[in-house]
Amino acid sequence: MLKRIILAVLLLAAAFSAKAIEYTDVYYDSNEPGWGAFLVQSDTTQFLAFFIYGQDGKPTWYTAQLADDGTGKYTGTLYAITGSYFYNPWTGYNINPAGTASFQPIDVYHATLIYTVNGVGTVTKPVQRQTLTPYKLSGNYSGSAAGSVSGCSDATGNDPTFRGRFALIVSQVADTSATLTFSFVDTTHNGVVCTLSGPLTHLGRLYQMANATASCTGPDTNTGPQPATVDSLHPTGQGIEGKWTGPLGGGCNGVFHFSAVLNVNN
Known about the structure:
Elements: H1 2-17, E1 25-28, E2 36-42, E3 45-53, E4 59-68, E5 74-83, E6 93-105, E7 110-117, E8 121-129, E9 139-150, E10 159-173, E11 177-184, E12 193-199, E13 201-203, E14 206-218, E15 221-235, E16 239-249, E17 252-262
Antiparallel strand pairs: 1-2, 1-8, 2-3, 3-4, 4-5, 5-6, 6-7, 7-8, 9-10, 9-17, 10-11, 11-12, 12-14, 13-14, 14-15, 15-16, 16-17
């Protein structure tokens, strides 16, 4: 019973990931190191803290509180903040509206940051997630996937509500490459084994495998190497999650959101 409950929770988490994109990270312009913004997201609200510099070259403190405007962009008010000298006893702070800000995602890794400071002007910068240290992805996991299979030459292969449970083995070579082996154990896909391998690109809290290959074997399944992409691959507090997209052979195209917990013996 406990295993069924855990797997049900994982399946819900995988399905939710298809709807909500999490942008929490540190962002910067790779051509202009030394400044940037910390972004923390809660549902459809974002809090940004800027580390930038004033006309005198000294650090200037701004924050912004942004909300999804319904188009996938986040907009809101920019605030200027001053406070007590850090070495002295705390006597309070002042926060005043100073303009507007907008965080406009290009994809899950890159965005355009626009902010206007009253009486100064508008700044528009391309930003991306800033990578800090490598993550360990290697391990043995148990999880679920939710997604769809479409476009199959044989229409019986289409599955608009794909659901599957799997054991997952991940092997990783530093920040260079990774292999993910999914061994499905649910009734519908039992015995199907899919292996994805490819180079890793590390951007902030996320990895991408943009040029991976995928092969699947098992009952009524035998697909040779197919191009595949794994997006938003990252460790979670309990395991790992990501999104796999690509052709599956026979004209089929798959989109799978997966989430798994690290087995306790790892």
